[in-house]
Amino acid sequence: MPVSGQATKGDSTATTLRVVMAQLDFLVGDIPGNTERILQATRQAWDEHQADVVVFPELCLTGYPPEDLLLRPSLDLRVREALSVLQQAALTPAMVIGAPIRSEGRLYNAALVIEDGEIRGRYFKCFPPNYQVFDEKRYFCAGEDTLVLSIKGQPVGITVCEDLWKDGPLEDAAAAGARLILNLNASPYDIDKQARRKSLLERKSRENQVSVVYVNLMGGQDELVFDGGSMVFDHSGRLSAEAPQFETGLYPVDFLCEHYCQPISRPLPDEPSLEANVYSALVTGVRDYVNKNGFKSVVLGLSGGIDSALTLAVAVDALGKERVRAVMMPFRYTSNISLEDAEAEALALGVQYDVFSIEPMYDAFMATLAEPFLGTKPDTTEENLQARLRGVLLMSLSNKFGSLVLTTGNKSELAVGYSTLYGDMAGGFDVLKDVPKTLVFRLSHYRNTVSPVIPERVITRPPSAELAPDQKDEDSLPGYDVLDQILNFYVERDYSADAIVAEGFDRAEVDRVVRLVDVNEYKRRQAPIGVRITERGFGKDRRYPITNGWKSGK
């Protein structure tokens, strides 16, 4: 492979190199704004840390993922103008940025090294991913070349994100003499993702005897959340520095370079619990979706149940109590306990709280429907009408006051269709869309350890939609402990019904759950987006046809 700036280990005297990891949040499509963020961060990295090189995340110039913005005819012009601005700034530190670059008619996901007003090197990502939420092959060609160049006299290799997970790019750079690898990332969050990254980096740095700087994007982009967690591993596979997850910032790391570029270790952040980590992801996703899309506030239905209580807490932690409005919309089946708990939650979090009964609207609708419904018995139609009236109220408040409606359905309900189209599914963003019900309970307990905002009986009493007298979720569904396990096998791991039964589950329950998942794809297609926290969220991850004849038994 062609190599730029090839060097060999041991060809210079010992020196120090200060690398600043720019773990920042960028807005997709805002190329001028992102350019200014890069310049500001580079100036700050020099003023505060005297950086030799500042490393930014993958595709920071456009934000990630830019999706079909990459197909816009003006893309190349906008990128060229931005690169010209960066070069003309002629800042002291070298900048390593990510940008889409066209070469010989082909578009590449590229890393560029800008120093002394010049583009000193460019690297094209060799492995554009095309799985889970990634569809880079729709836009980008695969690069073939290795890039190793001298920065402050040290041979440094450049790679981009997925290139680290495949064999070849890092190994080739190390073989070409790189003492240090700078890896630019836009790696979205899911549970345990950071542990998998660490395992990979430990092995790659140790096997290739090269230090690795891993810089990751931070912030929310539609359903994706990027958690940062930028890291440095030394040539022996030891974690030497780590930026906290879900925090933007500039994180300097010094290297003493002689035979190896050895990072000088820095204190590592505390390891967060799973619940704290997921909660931070939800807060980040809500905050960035609301703010980046220009919403002044959010509104949600507060039922007195656990899902809406947790959603309210996340919204307040993301946006502040002044930007959150909670609305209780009782009906004749709403219990006094629910009314009391909803009010207690609103008071504990200090949000605007309203109570609007749907009883008069329900009676008006039923009077209108009396003739066509003559001779029929009440069923889920009347239950769904209650949910749809609540949806109309919330959407009216949204229209009038410019508030985004947050829906409150969890992943378990969405999976089996335990939700009402144009009712509790009406809204713009579902905070708990990828959170199984059993995890909702754990997150609620966790949030109460920070400050008690969810009444204990909301967590402990049996969940109910309260659309009929004495209704309980488990009247219609298996217990959530069982349901979430079955869903994990079927949705997350693609087990067949037979394979799930072989794991020890009841055949009738498995068949029922699997059928509910299959027949409710049409609902999920019409659901709002929400924060992705698993490897198989509904939306970009799991794309099943609505109309199909697939049998799920085997």
UniProtKB/TrEMBL annotation:
- Annotated InterPro entries: C-N_Hydrolase (IPR003010), C-N_Hydrolase_sf (IPR036526), Gln-dep_NAD_synthase (IPR014445), NAD/GMP_synthase (IPR022310), NAD_synthase (IPR003694), Rossmann-like_a/b/a_fold (IPR014729)
Residues annotated as binding ATP are G301, L302, S303, G304, G305, I306, D307, S308, T408
* Keyword NAD listed: yes
The answer to whether keyword tRNA-binding applies is no
Where L-glutamine binds, per the record, is at: Y131, S187, K193
Question: Which PROSITE patterns does its entry note?
Answer: CN_HYDROLASE
Source domain of life: Bacteria
Q: What is its EC number?
A: 6.3.5.1
Q: Domain CN hydrolase: where? A: 17-257
GO molecular function of the protein, one example?
Answer: NAD+ synthase (glutamine-hydrolyzing) activity
Q: Which residues bind deamido-NAD(+)?
A: N384, E413, K523
Q: What Gene3D superfamilies does its record include?
A: Carbon-nitrogen hydrolase, HUPs
Which SUPFAM superfamilies does the UniProt entry name for this protein? Adenine nucleotide alpha hydrolases-like, Carbon-nitrogen hydrolase
| Catalytic residues, chain numbering | E58 (proton acceptor), K125 (for glutaminase activity), C161 (nucleophile)
Keyword vocabulary terms for this entry: ATP-binding, Ligase, NAD, Nucleotide-binding
Question: Family, per the entry?
Answer: In the C-terminal section; belongs to the NAD synthetase family. Belongs to the NAD synthetase family.
Q: Which HAMAP family match?
A: NadE_glutamine_dep (MF_02090)
Q: What is this protein called?
A: Glutamine-dependent NAD(+) synthetase
Gene (UniProt): nadE
